């Protein structure tokens, strides 16, 4: 990007002189929908982390990204000192779920609300971009952001483990499992978060809606688990864990990769894993459908 | 060359009929789309862009059908909406570059063209500041720039003079004229202010209640009343008498004299009369009946 651009006349011109060279037509290539999709995704991804926005917009995402890194750093220090794994890869995301939920709640509305509130959407839709392209770009941006939030600390942790050289083989299987499951987390969370946020042009309302859904599911799940365990309905309690989206995905991880559950009491055996995986797919499909319908309606108004 | 055409185009919403069997066509140059608020101008533009399906009838833009080739149309046209459409936390440069990329321009070209286009619409140093702090006039320029940045062959400008002060209005109209002539981009411009369009349009389409009232070249609107408007500081009565006695047909309209112009010799007659009477000439211009008058006549005839 640093090579000189010979054709930018005004920049290269001597100070204070603007030559009117008249209007020039553009004869160069016009790239297709894929290019526009990539441009919108990148633009949105930068926006999620507050790049290209005022300093105020950068505080929250970078604070939360920093918070996601902390356990990895501490864990590496512990590994170096006592030669023992501190945080398992499989449990990293579940442990840090509150941070991810806050990130999702705080940044999803930024992706979609301003375009609705300031009515930028008609400008996108009057270009070779369909509503589906728009939805895909916004979802991808959020999913990539969430994936980075999980994958970077996991990778740092893994590199730390290799450097510290713990006794025994490195936990490569667990690391790969955690990375794959991070993708599932990223897609599920972004589908829910962006869909909820897209229904209001007001950012505050979007933030509140996303965080409320997270708190509600985790509270209902927690209360049910507590009540059911106290009356010794342990198998019912294992199902109640799945109401919380983070434990739902953890159950999928346990089923596919055979990792240790990150809750007390484990997940429903047998059909529990497939049911959890199906639930994840259904929730993603619902979120995407809601988004497509929402923008189809917005396009015709 | 026909750039857009409709054939029996009808758009019904649950409660209102926005367009009623509209059949029009327009060629290259600047076309004015005139009508009161709610006449169906914005609906027509949305149908041309393929954003709204028509209830009945067909439309073509640049020889393409909005129903089946909307993406090709949107690649080749620009659109400036009537409403605000700018994010306040971005600078005009960033925003225009982004919109150029969304139209399919590679990033480096997008930057170059954004800088060029912003200069053409008259935004200079302020283009690096966030749009939130701009005046209405500057915002209208950014909206225009995003419609032009990908060098379309046709732009739809929906009420571009909305909210501008008289000077901003004049500048915007001059810019539209330049787009149509110097830039070589065909323009469809809507307005509910009929008078301002006659200054920039080659062709005017008047619609009312979704129906075509009149579609003709600008000359046809005004050719019936070729006249010269003369304004002098003092002594318009002696001037009127003098011109009348010289065989000119003169009407006094307040401080102005309207002289019917049969031939270029009328200008000479006015010049000589003013010189002979030693008057201070303030204004001598080609006067035309406003489109308003034509519009009003047509409405009363319907």
From TrEMBL, chain A:
Keywords: Membrane, Transmembrane, Transmembrane helix. The chain crosses the membrane at residues 59-82, 89-112, 141-164, 176-199, 205-227, 239-258, 270-293. Pfam families: ABC2_membrane_2. This is ABC transporter permease. It comes from Sphaerisporangium corydalis.
UniProtKB/TrEMBL annotation, chain B:
Residues 4-234 form the ABC transporter domain. One of its GO terms (molecular function) is ATP binding. The keyword Protein transport does not apply. InterPro entries: AAA+_ATPase (IPR003593), ABC_transporter-like_ATP-bd (IPR003439), P-loop_NTPase (IPR027417). Keywords: ATP-binding, Nucleotide-binding, Transport. Belongs to the ABC transporter superfamily. This is ABC transporter ATP-binding protein. It comes from Sphaerisporangium corydalis.
């Amino acid at each position: 990007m640093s090579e000189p651009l010979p054709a930018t006349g005004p920049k290269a011109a001597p100070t204070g002189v603007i030559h009117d060279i008249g209007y020039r037509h553009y004869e160069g290539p016009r790239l297709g929908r894929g290019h526009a999709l990539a441009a919108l995704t990148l633009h949105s991804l930068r926006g999620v982390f507050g790049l290209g926005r005022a300093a105020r917009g950068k505080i929250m995402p970078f604070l939360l990204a920093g918070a996601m890194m902390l356990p990895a750093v501490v864990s590496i220090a512990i590994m170096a000192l006592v030669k023992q794994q501190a945080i398992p890869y499989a449990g990293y995301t579940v442990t840090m779920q509150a941070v991810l939920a806050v990130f999702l709640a705080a940044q999803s509305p930024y992706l979609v609300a301003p375009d609705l509130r300031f009515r930028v959407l008609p400008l996108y839709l009057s270009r070779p971009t369909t509503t589906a392209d728009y939805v895909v770009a916004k979802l991808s941006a959020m999913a990539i952001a969430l994936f980075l939030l999980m994958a970077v600390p996991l990778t740092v942790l893994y590199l730390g483990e290799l450097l510290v050289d713990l006794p025994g083989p490195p936990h490569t299987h667990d690391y790969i499992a955690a990375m794959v499951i991070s993708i599932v987390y990223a897609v599920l969370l972004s589908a829910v978060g962006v869909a909820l946020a897209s229904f209001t042009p007001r950012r505050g309302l979007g933030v509140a809606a996303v965080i409320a859904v997270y708190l509600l599911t985790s509270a209902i799940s927690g209360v049910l688990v507590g009540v059911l365990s106290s009356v010794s309905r342990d198998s019912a309690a294992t199902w109640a864990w799945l109401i919380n989206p983070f434990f739902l995905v953890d159950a999928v991880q346990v089923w596919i990769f055979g990792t240790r559950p990150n809750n007390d009491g484990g997940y429903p055996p047998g059909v529990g894993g497939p049911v959890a995986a199906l639930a994840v797919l259904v929730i993603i499909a619902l979120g995407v459908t809601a988004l497509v319908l929402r923008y189809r309606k917005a396009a015709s108004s | 060359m026909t750039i857009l055409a409709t054939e029996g185009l009808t758009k019904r919403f649950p409660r209102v009929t926005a367009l009623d069997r509209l059949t029009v066509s327009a060629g290259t140059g600047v076309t004015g789309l005139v009508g009161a608020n709610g006449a169906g101008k914005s609906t027509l533009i949305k149908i041309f862009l393929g954003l709204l399906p028509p209830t009945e009838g067909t439309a073509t833009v640049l020889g393409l059908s909005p129903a089946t080739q909307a993406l090709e149309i949107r690649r080749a046209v620009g659109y400036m909406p009537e409403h605000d459409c700018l994010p306040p936390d971005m600078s005009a440069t960033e925003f225009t570059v982004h919109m150029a990329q969304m139209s399919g321009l590679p990033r480096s070209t997008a930057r170059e063209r954004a800088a060029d286009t912003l200069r053409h619409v008259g935004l200079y140093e302020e283009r690096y500041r966030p749009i939130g702090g701009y005046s209405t006039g500057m915002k209208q320029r950014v909206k225009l720039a995003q419609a032009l940045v990908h060098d379309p062959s046709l732009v739809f400008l929906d009420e571009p003079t909305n909210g501008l002060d008289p000077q901003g209005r004049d500048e915007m109209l001059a810019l539209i004229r330049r787009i149509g002539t110097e830039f070589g981009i065909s323009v469809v411009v809507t307005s509910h202010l009929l008078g301002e369009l006659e200054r920039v349009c080659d062709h005017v389409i008047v619609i009312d209640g979704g129906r075509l009232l009149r579609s003709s070249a600008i000359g046809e609107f005004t050719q019936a009343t070729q006249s010269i408007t003369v304004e002098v500081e003092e002594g318009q009565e002696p001037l009127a008498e003098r011109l009348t006695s010289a065989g000119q047909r003169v009407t006094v309209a307040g401080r102005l004299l309207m002289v019917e112009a049969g031939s270029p010799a009328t200008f000479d007659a006015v010049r000589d009369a003013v010189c002979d009477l030693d008057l201070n000439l303030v204004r001598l211009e080609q006067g035309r009946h406003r489109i308003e008058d034509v519009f009003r006549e047509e409405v009363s005839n319907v």
